[in-house]
Amino acid sequence: MTRAAVLCGTGSCLPGRRVGNDDLAALLDTSDEWIRSRTGIGARYWAEPGTATSDLAVGAGQRALKDAGGSAVDAVVVATATPDRVLPATAPLVAARLGLAGAAAYDVAAVCTGFVYALATAAGLIATGTADRVLVIGADTFSGILDPADRSTSVIFGDGAGAAVLRAGRPDEPGALGPFDLGSDGDGYDLITVRGGGSAQRLSERPPERGDGYFSMAGKEVFRHAVLRMSQSSARVLARAGWRTSDVRWLVGHQANRRILDRLADDLGIPRERGIGNIAEVGNTSAASIPLALDDAAAAGLLRPGDRVLLTAFGGGLTWGSAVLTWPRPATDREPVHPCPAPNTRPEGATDGHHV
Ligand code: COA
């Protein structure tokens, strides 16, 4: 019998500091009106110095494991572009802090597409019998890499983490994940990037500059790619699944920009009101974006058993990916999703990430 990965729990975590558009307008040449009308974002949450990606990942992981009704997993996969350190990966630390030392643990780096890539690798672990239960977390703290003087990126990104627990099951049961569609185009390598900190920097002829550590993005080109790549990838995954667009009850696109999500829905022929999203409240949380949106929607009782759900994401690389699933179960009695204070369980010596 073919094995499939079945979703059995979700969780999320946001840092405590809510930053509204007016807070940014006090620091930068921008306005609430500009940010809302160009991006659909009203607020985002930024980690305080001292809070690392692993803190948010642990918070989301704890909640997802509780939601799944059991803490044992064979693997922990963390999708992130802002790991606690360049090396080692963040996942082993997260696993240990969740009491899961011994489980396989690794990071997936596909920026905003990271969670969908991580889901695909986790589904592969389950399909091959390598693991029976996997915790998949998308977590990022972009506030630590944003150029405070760059109004085009500072207003967009927020910090957060979202998580899902997958268990082994059958491909025909509700919650079964897949098919997937994944892709990349390294010709767009420079469009979303942090230039410094990697092995290529020492090949450069000029000495490192302070701005090298900052995130940079070619907004207009990224916008165009995001719509095109997510709509093409969605169409491919729907064809693979044998679903029509009218079968899709909920479209959960990467929460990059409200206007991108609207265009995506229009291109696919899915009514905009079928788009699930929390970008107005959390901004673009990169790898956390899809699981955060899913967890918010599950907690709000929006996702109902049997609802057909399309996930699609786009990010740096360039990368993109999509997956489908049928929502497995009624919402359980949930704690309110936010706030979720990041747990203070970091071991001695693991506090020197780039956020400190
Ligand atoms: N407040 C006020 N004005 C701003 C601004 C801000 N926060 N950010 C940019 N502007 C200005 C620009 O300086 C420019 O001014 P100019 O015409 O005097 O030069 C003007 O607004 C238009 O800039 P432009 O970059 O063309 O705006 P845009 O409509 O493309 O919106 C983004 C900018 C970043 C919101 C948009 O390109 C976008 O959302 N891109 C995709 C981002 C994304 O989703 N990334 C993640 C993908 S994983």
UniProtKB/TrEMBL annotation:
InterPro entries hit by this protein: ACP_syn_III_C (IPR013747), ACP_syn_III_N (IPR013751), FabH (IPR004655), Thiolase-like (IPR016039)
EC number(s) from the headed UniProt entry: 2.3.1.180
Primary site of residence: cytoplasm
Pathway connected to this protein: Lipid metabolism; fatty acid biosynthesis
Top-level division of the source organism's lineage: Bacteria
Localization per record: Cytoplasm
Chain intervals for the UniProt region annotation (Disordered): 332-356
Keyword rRNA-binding on entry: no
Keywords carried by this UniProt record: Acyltransferase, Cytoplasm, Fatty acid biosynthesis, Fatty acid metabolism, Lipid biosynthesis, Lipid metabolism, Multifunctional enzyme, Transferase
One MF annotation (Gene Ontology) recorded for this entry: beta-ketoacyl-acyl-carrier-protein synthase III activity
First-level EC class: transferase
Location of the Beta-ketoacyl-[acyl-carrier-protein] synthase III C-terminal domain: 238-327
Catalytic reaction(s) noted: malonyl-[ACP] + acetyl-CoA + H(+) = 3-oxobutanoyl-[ACP] + CO2 + CoA
Domain Beta-ketoacyl-[acyl-carrier-protein] synthase III N-terminal: 106-186
NCBIfam families on file: fabH, PRK09352.1
Family affiliation: Belongs to the thiolase-like superfamily. FabH family.
Domain notes: The last Arg residue of the ACP-binding site is essential for the weak association between ACP/AcpP and FabH.
Quaternary structure annotation from Swiss-Prot or TrEMBL: Homodimer.
Role: Catalyzes the condensation reaction of fatty acid synthesis by the addition to an acyl acceptor of two carbons from malonyl-ACP. Catalyzes the first condensation reaction which initiates fatty acid synthesis and may therefore play a role in governing the total rate of fatty acid production. Possesses both acetoacetyl-ACP synthase and acetyl transacylase activities. Its substrate specificity determines the biosynthesis of branched-chain and/or straight-chain of fatty acids.
Protein name: Beta-ketoacyl-[acyl-carrier-protein] synthase III
